[in-house]
Amino acid sequence: MKVSAAGGKLHELFSRRDLLLLLVRRDLQARYRDSFLGFLWTVIRPLIQFLMYFIVLGQFLRAAEGIPEFAIYLFSGLTLYSFFNDMVAGSTGSILTNGGLVKKIYLPREIFPLASIGGAGFMFLVQLGVLVLAALIFRALPAPVEMLWFFPSLALILLYGVAVGLLLSAVNVYLRDIQYLTEVVLMLAMWASPIVYSWTMVSDVISRLGLPSWFMELYLANPLTIAVLGFHKAFWGAGTASDYPAGLGWRMVAAGLVGAVLLWVAHRVFTRLQGNFAQEL
User: Fold this and answer.
1) Which residues lie closer than 8 Å to 146 by C-beta, 6 or more apart?
2) 78 near 230, Cβ under 8 Å?
3) Which residues does 278 contact at the CB level (< 8 Å), separation at least 6?
């Protein structure tokens, strides 16, 4: 995509920001329509998930052993993963969900996956508030300078969330099984990231099995893994230098560059496929 074309698309989306906000609000209201507790489910759902993993994995299966302040470690990782999960899962079906609008009026089609990502962002902010409050109560926050890791971690997960969401939202119009496959992949993505275990456990297993060192590098190339580790540095004050791989910042930079290319490719594919959205719907 040429720079001028990209700028024109961004300007078009910005000029329709009121509509984008309206779609975000509609998406949030639709999630809990006719629900007695309403938006409280935004907090209840991740807390129940957290308690399940904390009790079953942390206590019964003893995953918490060797990880001080395991509750904050676990919840910080789950908060970021839930944001990525909600972004990708919501945007994947966004074009189909808004099929009526797609067929009737012209809008920049990107507005629909972006609206789903905006709704996921609202829920993330609520869960982030709970995380910060819990970290303050347990006095688990690191030094303020360490908390700056929050920003590159969030930027990285946003970059990949938007890229993957755009790509899958377009492909899903033509291949409806994509949304179901995405659910499976997202579930696997959680277990492929150091959320309920430490990354050093993976290193120990690779060493014990005598596998080549590039297995570890492959594991650390996962942008979700890198972002989760950055979130741990930002909110899990009990961590030490040995709890993180060397060169985490440079790994984030490399993952960010790859993510930027992926975003460019994803939008190119989206632009190519959007011409037949109305016919396919």
Assistant:
1) 233, 234, 237
2) no
3) 102, 103
